[in-house]
Specification:
Elements lengths: L6 H9 L12 H8 L11 H9 L2 E3 L5 E5 L5 H14 L1 E3 L3 E3 L1
Antiparallel strand pairs: 1-2, 3-4
Length: 100
């Protein structure tokens, strides 16, 4: 799984024979809601995931009120979890609900 922000890197992986798929999830909020449907188990050796769970923050609007969108920092592990869940369990579609 690879973030769509780097299509050239994805193409290089594929050319090298590495099974690499582009992430289908384009809705961060939907992906977070989907992840919340599952109970996650994290090993004590998963330092990055543990640290990111502790530092994950929601963004604020100009009035200082929290919005339904996370800050774009300390989120690489969180993004990976979201990518996996949305790949395995469907993605949001504006016309037909959830696709599998």
């Amino acid at each position: 799984m690879a973030d769509n922000a780097e299509p050239k890197s994805i193409d290089e992986f594929i050319t090298a024979g590495i099974n690499c798929q582009k992430v289908r999830d384009k809705s961060i909020v939907w992906g977070i809601k989907k992840v919340k449907e599952f109970e996650l188990y994290v090993t004590e050796d998963s330092y990055n995931i543990i640290n990111e769970f502790g530092s994950y923050e929601w963004d604020k609007d100009n009035n200082g009120e929290y919005i339904e969108y996370p800050k774009d920092k300390n989120n690489h592990s969180m993004d990976s979890i979201r990518y996996f869940v949305s790949h395995m369990y469907g993605v949001e579609s504006s016309t037909s609900g959830i696709l599998f």
